Known about the structure:
With about 200 residues, this protein is mainly α.
Amino acid sequence: MAMFRARKNKPKVLAETTSACPIEACPSDPDLLLLRDAAADERTAIALYLDAARNSCMPQLFLDIAATEMEHYVEIMRAISRLDPVQATLLRAAGLDLLVMTRPLFPSKSKAAKASMVADSQITLPDRKEMPTINLLTQALNGEFLATNKYQRYMLTAENTDVQLLFCHLMNEEKEHITEFTAALFELTNEPLPLAHD
Length: 198
């Protein structure tokens, strides 16, 4: 039972990379595998800490740590965007330009300076009714990171050019899902935090 959804504003790069997918449109830097795993871990931590803030007697502790993890996610996505022009283009097309900036999120600052910046960010607690959706979106996003990594590994392992191009196509489709789930999570969690705009 497959469900198909029309995409109104499909970014041009995705149409170009999925129809006659040239192998150059298949970013394969091995560090992307590590970065996507790290991004998925950060999203898991964020969802856990927001849930813990909602359900514990120490909400501020969990909110402060969630804010730090949110900044980590932005930093990791920026690193991904520098190595993966397909993902960068999709993020820009979705209005997530902050995730494709080339300058570092934190200029070299002490841990104490970073901690005070995070404390000033004033993260807000999501509504209780939004937490199940945040958890589901987090699981979905993590699944897309894993799928993207799997298709990149398959693409690099395949010997037949047609098979490589198929995995490239699938990998780039998953990147669109990463963008959509990130945008949805940012809407519910009020990310990125004001600190990230510096």
